Amino acid sequence: MPTRRANIYVDEDLIARCMRCTGHRTKKAVIEEGLRALLRLDGQRQVRDLRGRLVWVDPAAPEVIQPAPAPAPGGSGDADPPRSGSPTSPAAARRAPTGSTPPSAAPPSSSPT
User: For the chain, what percent of residues have pLDDT higher than 70?
Assistant: First the structure.
């Protein structure tokens, strides 16, 4: 990776606090980690911006799960649709056994030998 020397003015108290926080021994290491953190945050923002724009296909249930409709103006928009595999999702309902009773939650009894 190409490097380049740069002379910059940096708040010494801020650098000292970051060095204590991260455990890095050099200013260079602290600054590089900070730059990488900014790039990670920007990547997370880009993923968040895709919310509601993608169509997902569950490999276990090949039907297309459409994104939830946009909330009405003035609505809170906090409710998320059930995710695949959750007890209320159509895929989970298809996988649930019908007409059978679930096994007992009690551990099997052991017979003395």
Answer: 55
pLDDT digits (tens, 9 = 90+) for 10-43: 999 999 999 999 999 999 999 999 999 999 999 9
The Cα 37–Cα 45 span in angstroms is: 12
Residue type, 79: A
Give the pLDDT band of residue 78 (cuts 50, 70, 90): low
How buried is 30 (Cβ within 10 angstroms: 0-12 exposed, 13-18 middle, 19+ buried)? buried
Strand pairing partners for 71?
none
Task: Concatenate the DSSP letters of all residues of 46-90 into one string.
Answer: HHHHTTTT--EEETTEEEEEPPPPPPPTT----PPPPPTTSTTSH
Contacts (Cβ under 8 Å, ≥6 apart) of 88: 82
Residues 6 or more apart whose CB falls under 8 angstroms from that of 112 comprise: none
